[in-house]
Design goal:
- With 585 residues, the chain is an alpha/beta fold.
- Helices cover 47% and strands 14% of the residues.
- The protein is built from 23 helices and 17 strands.
- The strands form 2 sheets. Strands 1-8-7-3-4-5-6-2 form an 8-stranded mixed sheet. An 8-stranded parallel beta barrel has the order 10-11-12-13-14-15-16-17, surrounded by 5 helices.
- It is globular, with a radius of gyration of 26 Å.
- It binds phosphoenolpyruvate and magnesium ion.
- The site of magnesium ion has 5 residues, from helix 18.
């Protein structure tokens, strides 16, 4: 094939996860799984070297595990037994000696030999009914995966160390990977996996880097240094663009930047409808540094501070003072504007080291968020104390994620009181009179909203998870992302139910899921009677602009019609017909 043919313009279609256009060179980050292992033969004279390679990998894994064990905080020590088992397994005859034997006898590469040995062991385990022994078979897989990762060099990628202006191309990026992106280096990114509502795409929007996810096989088609264009608005990726395409996208990019600039000129005005209703427009942040962006884009407070990022990509847990400093920074910058600190929402798609939840078969339904915190009151209390201390410096509200029962609400309040008592005993300044809210993102909380409303000061609807849990759609799975839509009639009716329950009990009802940050869906939320919207900072100007262009009475009429529809498509058609002109579409 000629160079010309190899460099033919190719277009891929994925999920537009973060709007904007970027044009640049591809930089492939390898973070493969270890399922596919290549087999190759080793010459007799190189066999010793291959065995040494295996031994070095085992040593590295042993050191790595030892380091993890040493850094486990005192109070979690009892859970390190499993890691000790893994260290012991590394030198197990069945695994270690047999692999060396296989390398020697079959003259094959170390990773292949290890895979073969592990498959043999797993067959032996298959017929065992004892569940304890069966679980040991998983331990062997974990240990061998670690070794293979060293052998094929697929260590965790370190995005923070990229030193040139590039567009990242990866099979998948975790939220922790994405949060390391340096904006002066990474122009945008694309991945094979992932869906629109994943935390990875949320971070991309917060960072304002164009991103396309769920491309399927982009990493197989794109090579390092290939010129590519990412259009995060439409979800299109173009490899080897022709000069004509390049010119077209340079122009589109300029148009996008211009629209953004023009919207931002009005971003500091209030979000007041033509008939005089004012909505509070707040910003979502993941890292303390992002508060500046919220203010720059016209945010009137922080409606959602996702605190889990201080727990990711590190060993051990942050201590109270560290958390307090971070929260205080945010609170002080915001002055008397509200800062809604959401308590730890880990696991799900944000597993942390040593969290005990990372091996779950269904993490989204597992030991996530408040469930984890109530199981680990020591870790939770540390955070609650830090929040109460920061509250002495401004206007703090506390928000609890993934509530699914009244018991969880009451137990959380009990721990909050207990934390305040501890602070009093320790003589530290704190403020206990803070708004206490829960996220409504699990269907059971929707059904019980009238009861929940009697226990709390406000609701914040997390539409990202509410859609995931109601429609049974993994928010990060590209295969079903076409089904994921906030205009599903069940979602609209649920939000209506929650809003009515909140109003009847005189509490505020807010939305902090991605639905709040889209100008079209925001209109529906306005019509449903939501009091406050919180979104990615960059979405604030467009949403404010939209709110200012219409009457709340019209939004209510539209919602009344929308609630009568029975399919998502009917709602979309109705809304488009009604707002088409306003949107200039
Ligand atoms: C949500 O679920 O809508 C939400 C705001 O929380 P997160 O996206 O962090 O799960
Ligand atoms: Mg959520």
């Amino acid at each position: 094939m000629s160079d010309q043919e190899l460099k033919k313009e190719t277009r891929l279609a994925g999920i537009g996860a973060s709007p904007g256009i970027c044009i640049g060179k591809a930089y492939l980050v390898h973070k493969e799984g270890v399922d596919i292992v290549e087999k190759y033969f080793i010459d007799r004279e190189n066999l010793e070297r291959e065995i040494k390679r295996f031994k070095t990998a085992v040593k590295n894994v042993t050191d790595e595990l030892r380091e993890i064990i040493e850094n486990v905080p005192e109070d979690v020590r009892q859970h390190t037994g499993i890691l000790e088992t893994h260290v012991a397994l590394l030198k197990d005859k069945m695994l270690y000696d047999k692999t060396i034997e296989t390398i020697k006898n079959e003259k094959v590469n170390a990773e292949w030999a290890l895979k073969k040995v592990v498959s043999g062991i797993k067959v032996l385990f298959q017929d065992i009914s004892d569940s304890y022994l069966k679980a040991r078979s998983d331990d062997i897989t974990h240990v061998s995966d670690r070794i293979i990762r060293f052998l094929i060099g697929t260590e965790e990628i370190n995005i923070g160390s990229i030193d040139k202006r590039v567009i990242l191309v990866a099979k998948d990026l975790s939220p922790a990977d994405t949060s390391q992106i340096q904006l002066d280096k990474v122009m945008g990114f694309l991945t094979d996996r992932g869906g629109k509502a994943s935390h990875t795409s949320i971070i991309a929007r917060t960072l304002e880097v164009p991103a396309v996810l769920g491309l399927g096989n982009a990493t197989q088609v794109i090579n390092n240094d290939d010129r590519i264009i990412i259009d995060g608005t439409t979800g299109i990726v173009i490899i080897h663009p022709t000069d004509k395409t390049l010119d077209e996208y340079i122009e589109l990019k300029a148009g996008f930047e211009e629209r953004k600039a023009s919207l931002s000129r009005g971003s500091h005005l209030k979000a007041e409808t033509l008939d005089g209703l004012t909505l509070q427009i707040m910003g979502n942040i993941e890292l303390p540094e992002e508060v500046v962006s919220v203010l720059d884009h016209g945010g009137e407070g922080i409606g959602l501070y996702r605190t889990e990022f201080q727990y990711l990509a590190r060993n051990g847990f942050p201590v109270e003072d560290e958390l307090f400093d971070k929260y205080k920074d945010v609170v002080e910058v915001m002055g008397m504007r509200p800062v809604t600190i959401r308590t730890l929402d880990i696991n799900g798609d944000k597993a942390i080291t040593n969290s005990g939840g990372s091996d779950e078969a269904n993490p989204a339904l597992g030991l996530r968020a408040i469930r984890y915190c109530l199981k680990r009151p020591d870790i939770f209390r540390t955070q609650l104390k830090a929040i109460l201390r920061a509250a002495a410096f401004g206007n703090v509200r506390i928000l609890i994620p993934m509530i699914s029962s009244i018991d969880e609400v009451r137990e959380t309040k009990r721990l909050l009181n207990e934390s305040a008592d501890l602070l009093a005993k320790e003589g530290k300044a704190y403020n206990k009179k803070i708004g206490f809210g829960i996220m409504i993102e699990v269907p059971s909380a929707v059904i019980l909203a009238d009861e929940m409303a009697k226990e709390v000061d406000f609701f914040s609807i997390g539409t990202n998870d509410l859609i995931q849990y109601t429609l049974a759609i993994d928010r990060g799975n590209r295969e079903v992302s076409n089904l994921y839509h906030p205009f599903h009639p069940a979602i609209l009716r649920m939000i209506k139910h929650v809003t009515d329950a909140g109003k009847a009990n005189g509490i505020g009802v807010f939305v902090c899921g991605e639905m709040a940050g889209d100008p079209i869906t925001a209109v529906i939320l306005l019509g449903l009677g939501i009091d406050e919207l919180s979104m990615n900072p960059q979405s604030i100007p467009a949403v404010k602009n939209m709110i200012r262009s219409l009457r709340v009475e019209d939004a209510k009429l539209l919602v009344r019609e929308a609630l009568r529809q029975t399919t998502t498509l009917d709602v979309i058609k109705l809304v488009e017909a009604s707002l088409g002109e306003t949107l200039g579409r």
